[in-house]
Amino acid sequence: MADSWITNALKFRLLDIIFFLLVSDLVFGIIHYSIREEMERGAFVANVAEDLGLNIWRLSARNFRLATADKRQCLEVNLETGILFANERIDREQLCEQMPACVLSFEIFVEEPLEMYRGEVEILDINDNSPSFPESVILLQMAETMALDSRFPLESAVDPDVGSNAVTVYNISPNEHFGLKVETAEDGIEIVELLLEKPLDHERQSSFQLMLTATDGGNPPRSGTARILITVLDSNDNAPAFDNKVHKVSLIENSPRGTLVVSVHATDADEGSNAEVNYSFNNRVSQKIQELFSLDPRTGEIRVQGIIDYEEDDNYSFDVQAVDNGSPAIAGHSKILIKVIDVNDNAPEILLKSVARMVPEDAAPGTVTALINVIDRDSGRNGRVNCEIPKNVPFKLQTTSRGRYKVITSDMLDRETIPLYTIAILARDSGSPPLSTNKTIQISVSDINDNAPRFARPMDTVYVLENNALGASIFTVTAFDPDLDQNSYVTYSFIDNLIQDLPLSNYLNLNSMNGTIYALRSFDNERVKNFQVQVQARDAGVPPLSSSATLDVIILDQNDNAPVIVSPSAQSGSAQVEVVPQSAGQGYLVTKIIATDADSGLNARLLYQVLEATDPSLFIVGHNSGKIRTARGILEQDSTSQSLVILVKDNGQPSLSSTVTIHFSILGNVTEIFSENRNLVTNPEYVSDINLYLIVILGSTSFIFLIIIILLIGIKCKQDKHSPEDYNSPSCCYGLDDANNTFNPRHTLKETLNYTGAGEIVHIPETHHYSVCLSPESAKSDFLFLKPYPPPMSQDEC
């Protein structure tokens, strides 16, 4: 016996191992495994990671996890190896009772990318339960007049196992009066009845004891027994009979209490009290049925007295009996089959399986952001659910299977425009009226470095007053980056360029953190009037982005340079002497003061005025031009030595000035006299470039013109030398002696060339010869008179 048990145990163990290794391929996206029940805790079920082709080394990194709808958590998975194992001892009868198929569903989730796999484990039944009868002793009373083939319902044996392991055979101990009649009802329940095969005779045998045996189809088979004690009675030999042996009715769920379900009726062929019947539930009817329905013992009306819920049970099956008042009482039986009709009383349920709380803004369309399941406990049309999300968001729903959806991106995201999306998921069934459920999820958009810093003005002008303090802040540049965190952290720098051939860093310093620009030296408008600087703003993203702005720095002038007097130049602290002919009349241009100012604008606008004078009534100075003229004619009583102190001041605030002292010598009987020691100041430290250019141009022009005149006079003199008749006549070359070409002081021509305007130059036509002579009025005039030659001139004519 022990050896047989051990052999059977080894066989079951071998079968367990075989079933544990049974793994089917994915069928319609579902992994299917089959295992036997009664597995111990920790028993191997399957290697899910290997079957799904997942890399076991990355299971933890991808957040590998298992989700089941089983509250007991019968299954568990090793998060590192991907092995599915039993989390507790598995008893199919406890999990699924007598359901034809016992399946544990599960879902596997991994991330990066987000994926979901569905699976199920079918629990296979083993013959671990023996059939049993509700009562070990069945008491029956039968009238001796009971007709042949009369049937007496017996309680069926109960076997928690299913399929071939359930009860398949009923046997009764050998006897000559009774047999068994086994029928299968429409609901699949086997009806076992004791069949009277031979008439009873109370006088011959008043009681019977039979053994009823129920045997299942397992290997090896198991069996259970019950004793049947039959008492043979006399009289009342007709049992009540129902109008219908099976009553099929439909009942709407949530029917109110008191609703009539069905009214049963039975009749008894006997008479008197033996024909009176009372209705009641069969003793096999469960307590739950008796709580849901009531049966009137007199009328046979079955009414609702509990809550009928289609989702809890969609049909009910139970037996009622009609018992007469005979002695002994005889019962008739009828089966009630109630089909529950579903109504739309359950709103859809939205289950969030996985939600990506953060999605990068550069996520491509089609990126999965959430997995949801939508279920409706109703059936048929009431259980068909439509799911949708708003159309004004860049997301859409994608159906993966019935009741399962993916929330994916449908367009490009921009965190700078919308950083957070609140998505309302609406699930609505197709019932009448429809029921709906809302669920809200929030998805944040994570930042990427997709925006370069932006300057408010790509080009700007900076005004800096010259002579600024060293280290002073002259300007602040600001760039804005709409990105977040590190991507919006902006630093500033100069783009290398030169100022007067020197690096920019010699002039300016830029605070890279706040964009403040500092001057490293004091600027001088007279040296640098403006320059351009390029500033770059660069963020800290990866890769970094940058932009630039151009600053036009303008150095504003300050009145920091006093006027510099260029002409007449002072020598050893005193000005040169100017010669004024006594014949000079009113308005005679004596000289002109030339002054420069290194400043610009109003600061360089110069004004002239007489500060001191020997005779204030004799000379005046042009307020803007600096020209010194005679205010009146020179009188004989006027002193021959005059001096003026001229003040030259600029128009700045405050005004700066310089002075020059000019001495005048009044000479009589002189037409024109060159000013002695007239030297133009060409010191580059005091003369601006423009004035220097003007002086050089004027001097060069005057010098060239003088050379031309001398050459013309020389040609003329050479012609006169070869003409005998001209020797006795006045000649233009008064200063040349015919005999020895010596200079004759008597005929010396004193020319005047004054660039300040004291004299005038007369152009001589090339086709004529001119003689130069002094007119008798030359003492009163500062002009040279040129007369044609020939005819000869007399001294009187000159």
For this structure, the CATH topology of the largest domain is Immunoglobulin-like
> What percentage of residues falls in helices of 4 or more residues?
under 10%
Could you name the CATH class of the largest domain?
Mainly Beta
Shape category: rod-shaped
Radius of gyration: 65 Å
The description of the largest β-sheet is: 4 strands, mixed
The number of helices is 5
User: Please, what is the average pLDDT?
Assistant: 79
Poorly predicted spans: 1-28, 672-688, 723-798
Strand coverage percent: 35-45%
Give the neighbour order of strands across the main sheet. 1-7-6-3
SS-derived structural category: mainly beta
CATH architecture of the largest domain: Sandwich
Structure description:
This protein is mostly beta strands. It folds into seven domains: 2-124, Cadherins (Immunoglobulin-like, Sandwich); 129-234, Immunoglobulin-like (Sandwich); 239-341, Cadherins (Immunoglobulin-like, Sandwich), CATH 2.60.40.60; 349-446, Cadherins (Immunoglobulin-like); 454-556, Cadherins (Immunoglobulin-like), CATH 2.60.40; 564-681, Immunoglobulin-like; 695-789, no CATH class. The relative contact order is 0.05. Residues 1-28, 672-688 and 723-798 have low confidence and may be disordered.
Search tags:
798 residues; mainly beta; Immunoglobulin-like; four-stranded mixed sheet; 5 helices; 55 strands; 9% helix; rod-shaped; disordered C terminus
SSE blueprint and pairings:
Layout: H1 2-20, E1 30-36, E2 44-47, H2 48-52, E3 65-68, E4 75-77, E5 83-86, H3 92-96, E6 103-110, E7 115-124, E8 137-143, E9 151-154, E10 167-172, E11 178-184, E12 190-196, E13 207-216, E14 223-233, E15 241-242, E16 246-252, E17 260-263, E18 266-267, E19 277-281, H4 287-292, E20 293-295, E21 301-304, E22 315-324, E23 331-341, E24 349-355, E25 358-360, E26 368-375, E27 385-388, E28 395-401, E29 404-409, E30 420-429, E31 436-446, E32 454-455, E33 459-465, E34 473-476, E35 479-480, E36 490-495, E37 498-499, E38 502-503, E39 508-510, E40 516-519, E41 530-539, E42 546-556, E43 564-567, E44 570-571, E45 574-575, E46 577-581, E47 589-592, E48 594-596, E49 606-613, E50 619-621, E51 627-630, E52 641-650, E53 657-667, H5 689-721, E54 769-773, E55 785-789
Parallel strand pairs: 1-7, 8-14, 16-23, 25-31, 33-42, 46-53
Antiparallel strand pairs: 2-5, 3-6, 4-5, 6-7, 9-12, 10-13, 11-12, 13-14, 15-18, 17-21, 19-22, 20-21, 22-23, 24-26, 26-29, 27-30, 28-29, 30-31, 32-35, 34-40, 36-41, 37-38, 39-40, 41-42, 43-48, 44-45, 47-51, 49-52, 50-51, 52-53, 54-55
